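Annotators were shown the component list below and the corresponding predicted structure, then asked to write short factual statements about the assembly.
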Amino acid sequence: MDIEAAKYLAAGIAVGLGALGPGIGEGIAASKALESIGRNPEASGKVAPLMFVAMAITESTAIYALVVALIILFG
Amino acid sequence: MDLNISLAPDILFNIAGFPVTNTLLWSFVLSIFLMLVFVLIARSLKMIPGRWQNFIELLVEGSYSFVESTVGPGKKAQRLFPLVFTMFIFVLVANLAVYIPGQSAISVNNGDGFVPVFRAVMSDYGLVLIMTLVSIIVAQIVAIITAGPWKYLGRFINFKSPLAFFLGLMELVGEIAKIFSLSFRLFGNIFAGEVLGAVMLLLAPFFMPLPFLFLGLLSAVIQAFVFSVLTLVFISMASEVPEKEEVSV
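Structure shown to annotators:
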């Protein structure tokens, strides 16, 4: 396997594995937030911004994986 | 595939040996635009607001009440609001400027090839890192002022017990990790959006990129919001007097 092919493979694996955990985590965050809005619809204005912040923090490991992959590909 | 994607921004021209990149140029253009808008609105304040004044008032008041709801009303909100709102509005405008139609077609010859004049401002890691450093350094200064220099140092270097020493080191690592997580979140999202748009445009032009553009629009607003809210949370966390010192350890 030459080095170019290994680079593409490494970038793919990095993003694929890195996106697994945050995908599950964001799903849990969204489901809990929607559940709480369903239980108390007046609180949606308070729950939604917090949910976005929490999801962005959950997402950060996926973003690290993405940055690593982008550096492998284009850096 | 002939995608020209680079992590570093392209250099447009040099001013006395100082390279001016396309992101630098655009960050200045956007800053001047924002200053002009807000100065002009502030000069012509009326009791009965016009259309533009109404819009700006809505934005500022909404943001202020959000800051108040997060850190509590009073002096703290008044002091934090200018920094946080400036960061929010700058990141928001910088992210939304990507969606001005036609700007990506303009390119200029810099001597060794054509480079685009426009590039998403937040896809330059240097600028994002500087903004992150501003927010982290402000948080540290606030922490030093609130807790006093010796207590502040005691959070990180603590010889009371092996466990306390280890926890202090972890705290130090956590503070440094904040810089990376805050900056890479914004940079990664915007840069990935750019790359995704370019790849989709290459694979299936015109209609395939549309849903991704919409997703990018959503993440442009959310990332601006998240960046400023995290800045707000870091600073307000640093300004809280730690009370658990007496209870634990």
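Statements collected:
1. Chain A has one domain: 3-74.
2. Residues 3-39 of chain A form the longest helix (37 residues).
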